[in-house]
Amino acid sequence: xxxxxxxxxxxxxxxxxxxxxxxxxxxxxxxxxxxxxxxxxxxxxxxxxxxxxxxxxxxxxxxxxxxxxxxxxxxxxxxxxxxxxxxxxxxxxxxxxxxxxxxxxxxxxxxxxxxxxxxxxxxxxxxxxxxxxxxxxxxxxxxxxxxxxxxxxxxxxxxxxxxxxx
Length: 166
Prior knowledge:
5-stranded mixed sheet
């Protein structure tokens, strides 16, 4: 298991902030299993209003539909923890904000809720670009609920740096 410290999260936010300021871009988050942790990390940084536009915490399926426009049929067919849902979340965050880039996260943080097909620690992260596509990756994180969520936040932040440069 990869242990992620608060200092590592802060360092990732610093990199995100520097890059988005250089690019003149803003970020929106759409979070499920992380419960707004990415947005919290971003807004912990003074001056984040220059590059962080808003965050959506869409923990329930209804919230994903109401706030992000995720199609109920997509949720019914694929479940909340899926490629199609994370991509609809990423696009929905962009279409319901003024931001240029999005991070979307949905997963099974545990300790309960896992299945054979979607075990505890499975997390989908998608990075969207306004008028562009979404790049999504499925991760399988180890550890308890806090460790899974912390790893998801770290990967989401590091991915925005990788994807924003492309």
